[in-house]
Inverse folding.
């Protein structure tokens, strides 16, 4: 998630594979600093999902990232600060991925489908990040909750904007609809991630897509999209099973 | 400041010594005071920052009395959370039971839910926000409560137009969507506006099961009657 192009390190001096060589290594100061920062941010998701935000300590993050305590405090003020930085980086990434998928398709139905699929895939592929951003954020204090609320608004705006572009004003559902739909997806994701079964989320795409589109496209269109989507995901599952055995 | 008796007793504290009150009453009264204090302390500074000192100061009980009733902070929080969840679920269930059709039951239940939260902002904060920050045992309770609300809201097959194709995850998403709207209002100190959101939330809850005509009609009806009074329709 935080790409780092560290040169392949040797295993000497008990150095972890992600640590830069000590001493003069010919790497620019700026590179070292940004690499350390990224390592710390990457460690936050891992530690936070293992211990939970409340029990997480700076010490845990220092150990997991392999930087010194001093380097940690050169970059971050403390636990909340580093959590918020990691949360921001990851949600920006998730929102960019969803927006890109959304923007690459045409029309409300296809856009919503692609955006939702990208989101569910992201959560399924990154269980630690999902835990940090979806479950632990609710325990990380008012600043984190404020950021979460803003991210939810951004997702709801995506839906509202393309609905408004496509439908006549009289065809739009009540004002809170998009917020409620995004909250519904959040809950479904939250409960799966909490139970450690986030990997199954992409299989819920057809059903969730139906829920999101129904208020905008009506029952007939939503039902036919649901059937289509179920066929597609059956085919995908069949393919996956076929390639899994080879 | 109010007049205080010589031994620094708070106005809510029972008189010390022999007061002729049965022991069981004193005990349950102390326990209730602690549970109430947990609501206040947790909603004020958040569960993470809540200390037992805060709780006993608000409750006006001794540290020892606290530990007579609860083993630690989490134990007291869970007892308090159980109590308010039960109040919430009971209040919603009984309002729900008063309706004749599923549509009217949902309208009543949802209206009661929003009114209760708006009337009890401390309860709202603990149930909706702090419970998610209070560790795995609180989260298990929350999961059970969400399931209970889902079951309550699930329309009986005979009450819903047969052609509904709503997939199984629909009800989970509806309850989650209502939760989200409540959560964002409570965390931004706008709990009091919840009852005014009934028309829109009702529309979201009904639409997948009764279709747009009935959902729109209910929306209009509730929005109209909410315009006439401050509390939404029942």
């Amino acid at each position: 998630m935080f790409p780092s192009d560290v040169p392949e390190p040797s295993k000497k001096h008990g150095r972890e594979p992600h640590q830069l060589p000590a001493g003069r290594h010919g790497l620019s100061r700026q590179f070292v600093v940004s690499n350390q920062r990224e390592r710390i941010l990457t460690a936050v998701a891992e530690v936070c999902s293992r211990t939970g935000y409340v029990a997480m300590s700076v010490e845990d993050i220092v150990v997991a990232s392999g930087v010194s305590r001093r380097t940690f405090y050169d970059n971050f003020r403390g636990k909340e600060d580093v959590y918020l930085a990691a949360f921001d980086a990851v949600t920006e990434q998730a929102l960019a991925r969803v927006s890109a998928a959304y923007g690459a398709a045409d029309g409300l139905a296809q856009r919503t489908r692609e955006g939702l699929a990208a989101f569910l895939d992201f959560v399924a592929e990154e269980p630690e990040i999902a835990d940090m951003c979806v479950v632990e954020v609710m325990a990380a204090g008012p600043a984190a909750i404020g950021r979460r609320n803003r991210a939810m608004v951004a997702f709801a705006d995506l839906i509202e904007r393309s609905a408004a572009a496509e439908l006549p004003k009289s065809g739009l559902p009540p004002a809170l609809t998009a917020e409620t739909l995004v909250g519904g997806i959040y809950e479904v994701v939250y409960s799966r991630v909490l139970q450690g079964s986030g990997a199954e989320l992409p299989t819920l795409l057809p059903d969730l897509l139906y829920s999101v589109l129904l208020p905008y496209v009506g029952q007939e269109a939503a039902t036919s999209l649901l059937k289509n989507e179920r066929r597609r995901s059956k085919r995908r599952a069949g393919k996956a099973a076929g390639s899994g055995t080879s | 400041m109010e007049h205080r008796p010589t031994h620094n007793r708070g106005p809510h504290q029972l008189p010390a010594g022999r007061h002729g009150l049965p022991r069981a009453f004193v005990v349950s009264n102390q326990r209730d005071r602690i549970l109430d204090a947990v609501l206040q302390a947790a909603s004020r500074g958040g569960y993470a920052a809540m200390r037992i000192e805060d709780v006993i100061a608000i409750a006006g009980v001794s540290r020892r009395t606290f530990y007579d009733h609860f083993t630690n902070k989490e134990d007291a929080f869970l007892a308090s959370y159980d109590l308010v969840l039960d109040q919430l679920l009971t209040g919603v269930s009984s309002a729900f039971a008063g309706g004749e059709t599923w549509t009217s039951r949902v309208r009543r239940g949802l209206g009661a839910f929003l009114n209760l939260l708006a009337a009890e902002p401390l309860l709202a904060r603990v149930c909706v926000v702090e419970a998610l920050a209070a560790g795995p045992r609180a989260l298990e309770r929350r999961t059970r409560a969400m399931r209970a609300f889902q079951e309550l809201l699930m329309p009986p097959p005979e009450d819903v137009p047969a052609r509904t194709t709503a997939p199984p995850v629909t009800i989970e998403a509806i309850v989650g969507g209502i939760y989200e709207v409540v959560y964002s209002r409570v965390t931004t100190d706008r709990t009091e506006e919840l009852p005014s959101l009934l028309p829109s939330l009702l529309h979201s809850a009904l639409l997948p099961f009764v279709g747009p005509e009935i959902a729109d009609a209910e929306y209009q009806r509730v929005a109209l009657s909410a315009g006439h009074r401050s509390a939404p329709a029942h």
In short: DSSP finds nine helices and no strands in chain A. The radius of gyration of chain A is 21 Å.
